[in-house]
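Collaborator request, handled under Task 6.
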Amino acid sequence: MPLPSRQHVAAVPLFERLSDRKPEQPREPVPLRTLSYPELVKSVREEVSRLLNTRTGLPSHELLGRERSVIDYGATDLLWVNPFDPQSMRHLTSLLTQTVEQFEPRLHHPRVTIVQFVQTESRLILNITGTLVMEQLREPVSFRVTASPRLLEHQRDE
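Structure tokens returned to the collaborator:
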């Protein structure tokens, strides 16, 4: 059953509540406290994008299978990846999937697949799938994000 686009489906995460969406207004007429389904999907996509465009200081071989915390928030560096080596690509997708699983609790059973690898820029177009889980909501989702060593490039593409 499709959800009405304006129906409340989730509370707004803390950091989104703390950010000022309209800095030119001294006070918001209606504080942002809940998200509709489209706003929730957008919130998860943006958080996954921020996560996969933040680099952790640990090398990839130390991250796989490791319990993660805020100390090692983010994804591995992309410069080690050889797009012509299937084992290297499997290792990368495992790392990225594990990273999303560890740091985006609203997305259950995530799966990251590489849609396109732009080797000259070490930029990835990724497809993220999983089950969006919030309060009473259990909904399969799929969206694309760009992961790049250069944040400005990533923001321009989305």
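The cover message to the collaborator said: "The helical segments are 14-18, 37-52, 60-63, 86-103, 151-157. The chain has one domain: 41-157. Please let us know whether this matches your experimental observations."
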